[in-house]
Amino acid sequence: MIQRHSFFFTDLQREASRELSLLSIVAQSFFQPFSIVDNLLVILTALTSGAGIGFNRAMLFLKKDDRLKGEMWLGPQSAEEAATIWEVLSHPGIGYIEIIEHNRSLVARNADTLSRRIRDLSYSLEAAVLSVPALPVRDKHIYHVREAGSDPLVDEKFHAIIDVDEFLCVPLVAGDTSFGVIILDNAITGNSIGLREVELAGLCGLIAGNYIHSAELHQKIIDMERMAALGEMAAFITHQLRNPLTVIGGFADQILNGRASGNKRERNLGIIRDEIRRLEDFVEKIARHFKTRSKEPEYFDLRPLVEDVLRNPAIADKSAAIRLVLKMPKETPEVLGIPAAMAEVVRNIVDNALDATPPGGEVVIRGARRNTSWFVLSVKDSGAGIPSRDLDRMFTPFFTTKEKGMGLGLLFAKRMVEASGGRVEIQSRQGKGTLIRLILKCREKEETS
Amino acid sequence: MKRILLVDDEKSLGLLYEEELTKEGYAVKVVHDAESALKILDRQAFDLIITDIRMPGKDGVELITEILGRRRDIPIIINTAYQSYKDDFMTWAADAYVVKSASLDELLKTIRDLIG
Question: Does residue A182 share a domain with residue A126?
Answer without folding.
Answer: yes
